[in-house]
Design a protein that fits this description.
With 317 residues, this protein is α/β, with parallel strands linked by helices. Strands 1, 2, 3, 4, 5, 6, 7, 8 and 9 form a nine-stranded mixed beta sheet that branches. 44% of the residues are buried.
């Protein structure tokens, strides 16, 4: 195989039930040139290695073991091992459409200022399961759903950034910013996030472009445990913590965080009461308000001691 034109990376941690389908969807890509598939096993303790080894005779597939847990750590490990100028990331519980890599590659070839792109994400529900009545479109986004329409969109608001489960980035830009920030992104079972939002902010502030490509379609499996209200509350809590950390990394820590968090908390509670007759909107706003408690807790901790992200940075250096 000649030098790959694009690299497809799966970072995985104890997700062997879904991993095989994710790998197969990449190996079966309809791509005009050469590409590689890299699986980064992020300290898994299940059958992850066996799932990969069953497919390792395939010349495009490579396996790497990363012992330091953390999604951003694993993404950086995959980037260092990749051989192409365009890096794509698919979640271990997702399935890429046949033309996924081709659509992404064509976009970068046509636009030298494109730093980040990703596509539409649909949800794959467990057999016999229907979306619960209390699940709003907004909360469906926590399950990975992402749809900005059927036309290409150049994103100018970081909050609209492509989902990490269907994500690509130009290597030269990733090198420019020093890789994915290991202070953001999941570590083990915590739901720390916002790493893609942070990277989009850096891209937009330095003159790069970020694009939504509807034809770069991926389907994301909804695990049964994510259909519990408690999962969404936990996800909201960690979203609040993530937003606090992101602001601290950007130099926006301090009393202003207490004002912002308090205002958002009250807004969520008021809207939750306002939509008392709509189970989906009621729960959506309650989750939002609950997440602000996590945000405020982290903001206060950052004022009285070194922020958690700072401690993690020191430990990893």
């Amino acid at each position: 195989m000649s030098e790959p034109q694009i690299s497809a990376i799966i970072c995985t941690h104890n997700r062997d039930a879904y991993l095989g389908a994710a790998i197969d969807s990449l190996l079966e890509q309809e791509f005009a040139g050469d590409f590689e598939v890299i699986v980064v096993d992020n300290a898994s303790s299940d059958r992850t290695r066996e799932v990969v080894e069953a497919r390792l005779p395939h010349p495009r597939l490579h396996y790497i073991y990363e012992s330091v847990t953390g999604l951003s750590v694993a993404r950086n490990t995959g980037a260092k091992a990749a051989h192409s100028a365009i890096l794509t990331y698919l979640d271990d519980d997702a399935v890429a459409s046949k033309g996924w890599l081709q659509v992404l590659y064509n976009a970068y070839e046509a636009n030298e200022k494109l730093a980040i792109s990703g596509g539409k994400v649909t949800l794959l529900w467990p057999p016999g399961v229907e979306p619960p009545r209390w699940l709003s479109p907004g909360l469906a986004g926590n399950l990975g759903a992402y749809d900005l329409g059927d036309e290409v969109v150049y994103i100018d608001k970081p909050g609209l950034t492509p989902r990490g489960l269907n994500y690509s980035i130009r290597r030269s830009f990733l090198d420019q910013i020093g890789g994915f920030d290991v202070n953001l992104g999941r570590v083990g079972k915590n739901l720390l996030s916002n790493e893609e939002l942070h990277v989009t902010e850096l891209a937009l502030s330095t003159g790069w472009q970020v694009a939504y490509l509807p034809d770069a379609l991926v389907a994301h499996n909804v695990a049964p445990e994510r259909l519990q209200r408690s999962w969404f509350l936990n996800r909201g809590w960690w979203q609040g913590i993530s937003e606090c950390y992101r602001e601290q990394l950007a130099g926006r820590a301090g009393l202003g965080q207490l004002n912002r968090g308090g205002e958002r908390f009250l807004r969520g509670l008021v809207r939750s009461v306002k939509y008392i007759g709509d189970p989906a909107q009621r729960f959506d706003n309650f989750v939002y308000a609950y997440g602000q408690i996590g945000y405020l807790k982290s903001a206060i901790q950052g004022m009285v001691s070194a922020p958690e992200w700072s401690k993690r940075s020191q430990q990893s250096s």
